[in-house]
Amino acid sequence: MKIVKAEVSVVEIPFPFDASGVGIMPTPWRSLEFALVRLEDELGNVGWGEAFGYFVVDASKAITERLILPRLIGATVTDIPAWNRRLQLDLHLFGRYGATVFAISGVDIALWDLAAKRQGVPLHQLLSDGDRPARTTGLRSYASLMRYGDTALAVAACEQALGRGYTAIKLHETDMATISACREAIGPDVPLSVDVNCQWGSRFFTEHRKELAGLGVAWVEEPVFPPEDFSALAALRSPGIPLAAGENWCTAEQFAQSGGAVDIWQPSVTKVGGISEYLRILAMATAQGHPVVPHCPYFGPGYFATLHLAAAHPAMDDIEILYTDPEAWLCDVEGLRDGGALSVPTGPGLGFEPDPDVMEKYRRA
User: Per CATH, which fold does 3-120 belong to?
Assistant: First the structure.
């Protein structure tokens, strides 16, 4: 396919939040930021992609525009993984991880969307090995709550999420008393996981291991810093509390280096290097028996790409949905959810088409 047009836009949609907004992010978090990549081929087909954007959206846009799009416009891409690999090599001087790989991710997703649209098939059909039918309905999901830093707000959010049909909850609280209160509020049978974004450390985790086991957590996510401290993670593993990590591991190389550090892998399609790199990770996960629970707090092409990857690969389930209510939706993501179950678009490509009125109103760059 020959790329004749390419651009990247920043769309920022505010959302209300009762707490400080500080915790998961370094400063108050009250908006969803999208770095949307739009590619057009010589036949007029359009492919959409998304680079990781929250708080670094302008960096993702700048790298995409300056380092990637000039070499892509006018080029013919026949093998997307090979193109991705070559681009990683050519840009490695600017960082193997972080914003450079975020930008590669966004363009890679758009290329895959374009490739599926050219063939008139849903993306999961291109991603499947063909040995099994894709799962286009019944994917599990969970409500991924913000960090409230307040027990009453966290408990209320848990109850609200269950009232909206969610059947599993993930907390981002770091205080054990708040985590215990949330477990008490939702009852013993609702799956509950805890993501502390590297805030605890080995000593804290060890001191509270029995308490966490008693709460019946489905997994504890990123308990130590740095997130790629594989030896520390491996030392904390035990049968009673599954450990999860991977949202901050970039490219398949870090997953390959992780060894037996964690029980659950959590690659993020907008951060890891796109769909091409994700497929390499899924192949390793399948070979090693690792379940894949994707990092996916997105509502754009990154979310849709995650759904198609899960549809095509049985090792992948439990789709993260960021529990928030933005002023507007870039596309109809809620229409894919029925309680705790998700369906996957079956039209050509990703199935993502942004609302042009929302794009116009909230586009800032």
Answer: Enolase-like; domain 1 (3.30.390)
